[in-house]
Specification:
A: mainly beta, B: seven-stranded mixed β-sheet, 0% helix
Chain lengths: 109, 120
């Protein structure tokens, strides 16, 4: 059974600081997705990572995928309050997505 | 706005009742997925339909069923409701089934706004 583990589960950080969210998974996959969810809202697609070594960047967020280590990271640079949300990684096995537990990020002024 | 619509937005009902949740996928998307999100179970895949046919089942209870109609909208039916069924139910859609493992195929799913179900 595929297990997808995110850490940390809760992250409180100061504005302007950098931090990384980790997503480990237990079965080989070369497709991984990151989503953002605001409280009570839907999931918004952030990044699609399709191969080993893939790196995508959008604004202050950068995602990478290491399929050999079965690890994806979501790096936050110079955090701002607007980034406060829950971030999920999702691993694609045979086109079925298994989600991590989510990382609830709070950016403090 | 992802282009996926779900109705109703909120649903409050009693234990033992039956409800139907509705989803319309993005224009052109053939695959529809249903997910349940709760505090204790997280985001769980329930079931997938592709062009009217069931393609995959996840952790879906026998009391739950779904279908996809010729116009590609989908309905999730929940019956004999229990308190523990209270959750956010999301529908997502994607372009295709995603056959094979070619480097260009992937399965980015676009999520609807969800239906919040409260069972009292």
């Amino acid at each position: 059974e595929l297990k997808v583990e995110q850490n940390p589960l809760f992250l409180s950080m100061q504005e302007g600081k950098n931090y990384t969210i980790y997503c480990n998974y237990s079965t080989t996959s070369d497709r991984l997705y990151w989503y953002r969810q605001d409280p009570g809202k839907s999931l918004e697609s952030l990044f699609v990572l399709l191969s080993n070594g893939a790196v995508k960047q959008e604004g202050r967020l950068m995602a990478s995928l290491d399929t050999k280590a079965r690890l994806s990271t979501l790096h936050i640079t110079a955090a701002v309050h607007d980034l406060s949300a829950t971030y999920f990684c999702a691993v694609d096995i045979s086109r079925q997505l298994t989600f991590g537990s989510g990382t609830q990020l709070t950016v403090l002024p | 706005d992802s282009g996926v619509t779900q109705t109703p937005k909120h649903l409050i009902t009693a234990t033992g009742q039956r409800v139907t949740l509705r989803c319309s996928p993005r224009s052109g998307d053939l695959s529809v997925y249903w997910y349940q999100q709760s505090l204790d179970q997280g985001l769980q895949f329930l079931i997938q339909y592709y062009n009217g046919e069931e393609r995959a089942k996840g952790n879906i209870l026998e009391r739950f069923s779904a279908q996809q109609f010729p116009d590609l909208h989908s309905e999730l039916n929940l019956s004999s409701l229990e308190l523990g069924d209270s959750a956010l139910y999301f529908c997502a859609s994607s372009v295709a089934l995603g056959h094979g493992t070619g480097s260009l195929t992937y399965n980015e799913q676009f999520f609807g706004p969800g239906t919040r179900l409260t069972v009292l």
